[in-house]
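User: C-alpha cells for this complex, please. No commentary.
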Amino acid sequence: MNSKPYVREVSKTTWFLSHPRYKRYMAREVTCIFIFAYTFLLIAALGALANGQEAFDAFVLGLGGPLGVLFNVVVLIATVYHSLSWFVVTPQAMPIQMGEEFVAGHIIVNAHYGAWAVVSLIILFWGM
Amino acid sequence: MEIIKADVAIVGAGGAGLRAAIALAEADPKLRIALISKVYPMRSHTCAAEGGAAGVIKSDDSLDLHFSDTVGGGDWLSDQDAVEYFINEAPKELTQLEHWGCPWSREADGSVAVRPFGGMKIKRTWYAADKSGFHILHTLFQTSLKYPSIQRFDEYYATDLLVEDGRCQGLTALEIRSGEMKQFQAGAVIIAAGGGGKMFPFTTNGNIKTGDGMALAYRAGTPLKDMEFVQYHPTGLPNNGILLTEGCRGEGGVLFNKDGRRYLQDYGMGPETPIGQPVLKTMELGPRDRLSQAFWGEQKKGNTVKTPWGDCVLLDMRHLGEKKIDERLPLVRDLCISYLGMDPVKEPIPIRPVVHYMMGGIHTDVQAATRLPGLFAAGECACVSINGANRLGSNSLTELLVFGRRAALSAIAHLQSNQVPSSDTALAAKAKESQNRIQALFDKSNGTESISGLRQEMMDTMEENVGIYRTGEGLAAACEKIAELRQRYANITLTDKTHVYNTDLMQALELGSMLDCAEAVTVGARDRKESRGAHQRLDFTARDDENLLKHSLAHYHPTEPPRIEYLDVVVTKSKPGVRDYSGAKK
Amino acid sequence: MSELQQRQIQLEVLRYNPETDTAPRYQTYSVPCLEEWVVLDALNYIKDHLDPTLSYRWSCHMAVCGSCGMMVNGEPKLACKAFIHEYKEGQIKVEPMANFPIERDLVTSVEDFITKLASVKPYLIPKEDKPVSAGEFKQTPAELKKFKQYTLCINCMLCYAACPQYALVPEFLGPAAISMAHRYNQDSRDGGRDQRQEVIASDEGVWECSFVGACSEVCPKHVDPAGALQQIKVASTIDWYKEHLMPWMKK
Ligand SMILES: Cc1cc2nc3c(=O)[nH]c(=O)nc-3n(C[C@H](O)[C@H](O)[C@H](O)COP(=O)(O)OP(=O)(O)OC[C@H]3O[C@@H](n4cnc5c(N)ncnc54)[C@H](O)[C@@H]3O)c2cc1C
Ligand code: SF4
Ligand code: FES
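Assistant:
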C-alpha cells in the first residue's frame, strides 16, 4: 500500500487562537466563570444570613464597598455578554413553526429581550 | 493482483447504478454486489439535475399522452416498446422513491406536486424544488446504506471489461487511493457510468462525465447506438455553462432577443403566449432541440445580445416574483447571483445553449441487455432507446430508475442461467493485459503529446463542427481530426509517475474514453444524412424516414474509425408524423 | 456588460505526496485569473498549464456535488464557490480541509465521515407499512418544510473542517451526520427516531457538541447543523425528564 495519510496535529491548549470565531466561543464559555463566582457570593450571603442580623448587615455593607461594587459590575457585564450570546442562538435551538413558515429568528431573539426586560422590571419594582 | 469476487459488479454509483444495486439487494439478500465508482456515490452527476422527473400520476394525465409526447419529442427515433415499458414503470418508480424518503415538493393536500416541462402536453414532472436530481441521488445513496450486501468500492476507476468465452465476466479497476489494480470477477456486469458531455468545452456536465462507461463497452466489442444525437440545453449561463433548469420556463420564464421580441414565435412555436400564462408544448415550452435551433437562427440574424462571453439571449423571470422564485427555483437564483452576479428577481439573465445530454450510448434492448452476454447497461451511458433523437426534459431521471432496476432484474436472470465461469487463469490473463496497458503509460518516457493539449484540440473540434447545426464538410473535417487525435493519443506522456491519487493518470484514461466516444459521435453524424431531433444538417435539412428511420450502431476498431451499422427503429403504434409545437393547432 | 478583468494571483498550495514527501510543503503558482473565476478555475489552470501532478477532487463546478472542499486562506470553502474577486490580496493560500488526514495534495480522507453517516441510519424508517401500489405517503408543505433544510446537505464536510470539537475528539459523530439523523427524525413519514437515538444521543453524539456554531457559519448550503444538534439536545433532555420524573408518560 503506497497510501500514507498525513495527520496534522491540533494543539490541545491553543487551538482556539487560530480563528476569531473560536475566540468568540471561548469568550462565551469563559464568561460563565463569573456567573459561577457569583453563586459563591450568594452562598456567602446565605451564610451571613444564617449567622444573624449583624453578620448580614456587615456583609451588605461590604458589598457596597469599592471591591463589592467592582465585583458586581464585572459580573454584570460578563453575565450580560454571556446571556446575549445565548439569546442570539436560541432561534437555532428552538425554532418555532407556525403554519408552514418558521417564525423569523429576530422575533424569537427579541421575545427573549422582551421577557428579560419584563422580569428585570418586576424584580426592580418588587424590590422597592 | 487482488481478485474480488461478486455476483454482480456495477460500474457507476449515480442514479442508475444505485437503483440497480438496491434492486439486486432487495431481490436476493444473498447476492454479492460490488458497486464500483470513480467518485463517492453522492458526487455523481445525477446530483446536478435540477428540474425533475416525469411520471404519470395525476388524474388529468394518461400513459398514452406520456407515450406520444416522448415519441414525438424524440422525432420518432425512440423504440416504442421501450417507451411503453418506461411510461408504465415510471409512476411506480417515482412513488417508490417517495417511500424511500425523497422530499418531493407537495400540493396543499399533501399529494406530490407536478410542474410543466418542455415538450410535455400535461404537467407531469415530479420535482423537489430545483434540486430534484440532488435529492434523488442522496435518497438512493442513503437508502443503499441499509443493505449490507451492497459492497461499495468508492474511488475505483474501471479500466477494462473482462470478456472470455463470449461473455462478460468481470472487469478491472484501479483503486485510485493506492494506484493498485484489482480484478473483479462477476457473473454479470452492469454499466451505469453516465454520459460524456465533457468532450465538449461548453457543457452542463461535470468533470466526471467523460464517457468511460460507453468506452468500456465499446472497446469490449459491443456497439454504441445513436451517438450523433447530442442535446443542447437552451438555457445555460454564458460564462461557465451552469444550467438554468427548464423549470424556469415551466414556471413561466420567457425568452427575449436583443430587441425584446419573444423570438420563438418566428420558429414555428408561436403564436406568442401572454407573459405569466405559459401554454404547454408552445413557445418557451417547446422541446430543447427546437429552442436551441431557434437561438442559432437568432444568432445568424444578428438578434442576439453581445456579452463578454459571446452571443446570448435573455431569460426573463422577473414577473414570477421573489416569493415564487425562492420557493420553486431557489438554486437557480443562487447560481445566477453567485456565478453571474445577476439576480433573476431583478433583471433578465443572459443565457445560451449548452451541451447537456447524450441521447446515444451503449446499445441495449428493452431488457437493458447489451449484445455481449453478461453485460447490461442503464442510465445516460445506455441507449435503450426511449429518448430517440431528442430527449424530453425530465425523462432521464426517471429512465435511471426504471432501467436501473430493469438491468438488475436482467442480471439476476442471467445469473440464473448458471453459466460456468471461464478458468481463473484465462480471466487473470485478461486482467493482466489491462494492467499492462496502464503500466505502459508509466514506463513510457518519450511521449510527446500533452494530455490537456489533446483534450483542448478535441473540444475545439467538437464545438466547431459538431454543434447545433452541422455540415457534411465540417463533420468530415471533425472525423479526420478526431482520428488524428486518437493516433496522437498513443504518444501521450504522464508527468506524474506516482500512484496515490494520480489524477494525471485519471485524466489520461478519461481522455482516451472521450476520444473513442467523440469518434463514434462524429462518424455517426457524418453518415446520418438527414435532420432529425438534435442532429440538424444544413446540407440535409429534411427528415428521411424512408432511409433513416434507423438507429446507427458504431462498432469499435482500435486504430480505424468505427464501422457503422443501421438497425430499424421499433414502431408499434405511432407512425412518424409532424412535430407540432405551435399553439395554433388548438 | 463590462469587459472581463484579469489579475495575476499567487496561489500558495499545500502539497503532499506520500510516495515522495515525509511532510506537507507549500508550492506557489502564479496564475492569470479572471475576476469572475473561482479558486477551482485557478487550480484547473495549474493542472492544465503549469503542473499536471497537482491532485484535488472536483466534479460539478456548481456547489452541489460536495467534492471540492478545501481551506482557502484558512477558511473551509468549496473551491468552486470561492470567488477570486473576494480575495483582494494578490495571494491566496489553499490547503486541504482541516481536521482530516491528507491523502495527497488537496485530497483528504472521506471514509471516517461515510462511516459516521451510515451509523445514524440516514434513511426513512416508515411509520406505517404501505405498498408502493397504494400510492404516495401524504405530506403537507408545512410538514415538508419542517425538515427540508436538513435535506440540503451536500456532504462536503466543511462543517467538520470548522469544528474544533471534531479536531479534539475524532470519535465525535459530527455536525453533518447528526443533522441527517435529525432530518429523518423530523420527517412526518418516519418512525425511526428511537432506533437512531442510541447513536446520536450518546457521548460521541450530540453531547460532544459544545455549540461553538462554527459548522453553521461555514456551511455552504445553510443547513444549520448547529441548530439541528441543539434541537436534538433539547428533545433528548425532555426524553430524560419524562423517563425519570414521569415514568408513567413512557409509552
Ligand atoms: C445540470 C444537469 C441537469 C439535469 N437536469 C435533469 C432534469 O431535471 N431531469 C432529468 O430527467 N434529467 C436531467 N439531467 C440529466 C440526468 O441528470 C442525467 O442524465 C443522469 O443524472 C445521469 O445519471 P447516471 O446514473 O446515468 O450517471 P451519473 O449520475 O453521471 O453517474 C455516473 C457514475 O458512473 C461512475 N463512473 C463513471 N466512469 C467510471 C469509471 N471509469 N469507473 C468507475 N466508475 C465510473 C461515476 O463515478 C458515477 O458514479 C440533467 C443533467 C445535467 C448535467
Ligand atoms: S452540513 Fe453543510 S457544511 Fe456540513 S457537510 Fe452538509 S452541506 Fe457541508
Ligand atoms: S465541484 Fe462540486 S461542489 Fe465544488
